[in-house]
Design a protein that fits this description.
The complex is a heterodimer of chains A (114) and B (112).
Chain A (H helix, E strand, L loop, with lengths): L4 E3 L2 E4 L5 E6 L6 E8 L3 E9 L2 E5 L6 E5 L5 E5 L8 E8 L9 E2 L3 E5 L1
Parallel strand pairs in A: 2-11
Antiparallel strand pairs in A: 1-3, 3-8, 4-5, 4-9, 5-6, 7-8, 9-10, 9-11
Chain B lengths: L3 E2 L4 E5 L4 E7 L4 E9 L6 E7 L4 E4 L2 E6 L4 E6 L8 E9 L11 E6 L1
Parallel strand pairs in B: 2-10
Antiparallel strand pairs in B: 1-3, 3-8, 4-5, 4-9, 6-7, 7-8, 9-10
Classes of the chains: A mainly beta (114), B mainly beta (112).
C-alpha cells in the first residue's frame, strides 16, 4: 500500500513569505501529525489532527498552523517565514492516536528560507 | 527542558558485534516507548516498541529493555550490520497520547 506522501520534497522561500506543505496519509489513517527537524532542536512536535480537529499542539508560534480535510489529507502553513524556519518538516499518519504501532512517517519536505 | 535524552551522540561498532543505544527520560507519564531509525533527508522508520508494563521486547536482531524505576531504556542490536548505520531515536508517548517526544538521537556507525 502507498505510504505517507509529502509534497513538495524541496522548497526555497524568501524571508517574510508564507508556505504551505501538504501531507497525504496512508489510506484509512485518520490521524496526521507534523514534526520539525532542525540540527539545533532535533525532532519537535508541531501539531496533530484527527478527523479534521486539532487535538494537540506543540510549542510553536502562531505563524505555524495546519488543517486537515475530510479525506484526512493535511496541510501545514507557515506565515512570515524566518531564517530559523529552515528545517525538514515531517508528517506522520496513524490509524488513530492510541494505535501506538502506527506512526508512519513520510520522507519530509526540506524547506530553506533565504 | 529536554524530557528525553540520548547521552551518546555517536557510537561506532564493528560488524557482527552488539550495539547498545541508551535513552533516559524524566516524564513519569510516558508509558509507551518507540524506537525509530532515520537516514538523512528521510522520515524516521519504526523499529520496535515497548509498553511500560513490560521490561523487554524482542524482534529479530532488535531487543528493547525498559527499566521504569530508573526511567531508562536501551536498544540492543545483535549482530550489528553495516546497513544499521543511521541515527536512532527513542520516542516515548504519554498514556493515551498522540504526540511523540523524540530524544536527541544517536548516530550509529557499523564498521566492516
Amino acid at each position: 500500500k502507498a505510504g505517507v506522501t509529502q509534497t513538495p520534497r524541496y522548497l526555497i522561500k524568501t524571508r517574510g513569505q508564507q508556505v504551505t506543505l501538504s501531507c497525504s496519509p496512508i489510506s484509512g489513517h485518520r490521524s496526521v501529525s507534523w514534526y520539525q527537524q532542525t540540527p539545533g532542536q532535533g525532532l519537535q512536535f508541531l501539531f496533530e489532527y484527527f478527523s479534521e480537529t486539532q487535538r494537540n499542539k506543540g510549542n510553536f508560534p502562531g505563524r505555524f498552523s495546519g488543517r486537515q480535510f475530510s479525506n484526512s489529507r493535511s496541510e501545514m502553513n507557515v506565515s512570515t517565514l524566518e531564517l530559523g524556519d529552515s528545517a525538514l518538516y515531517l508528517c506522520a499518519s496513524s490509524l488513530n492516536a492510541v494505535d501506538n504501532y502506527g506512526y508512519t512517517f513520510g520522507s519530509g519536505t526540506r524547506l530553506t528560507v533565504v | 527542558d529536554q524530557q528525553v535524552k540520548q547521552n551518546s551522540p555517536s557510537l561506532s561498532v564493528q560488524e557482527g558485534r552488539i550495539s547498545i543505544l541508551n535513552c533516559d527520560y524524566t516524564n513519569s507519564m510516558f508509558d509507551y516507548f518507540l524506537w525509530y531509525k532515520k537516514y538523512p533527508a528521510e522520515g524516521p522508520t519504526f523499529l520496535i516498541s515497548i509498553s511500560s508494563i513490560k521490561d523487554k521486547n524482542e524482534d529479530g536482531r532488535f531487543t528493547v529493555f525498559l527499566n521504569k524505576s530508573a526511567k531508562h531504556l536501551s536498544l540492543h542490536i545483535v549482530p550489528s550490520q553495516p546497513g544499521d548505520s543511521a541515527v536512532y531515536f527513542c520516542a516515548p508517548l504519554e498514556g493515551g497520547g498522540n504526540k511523540l517526544t523524540f530524544g536527541t538521537g544517536t548516530q550509529l556507525k557499523v564498521e566492516l
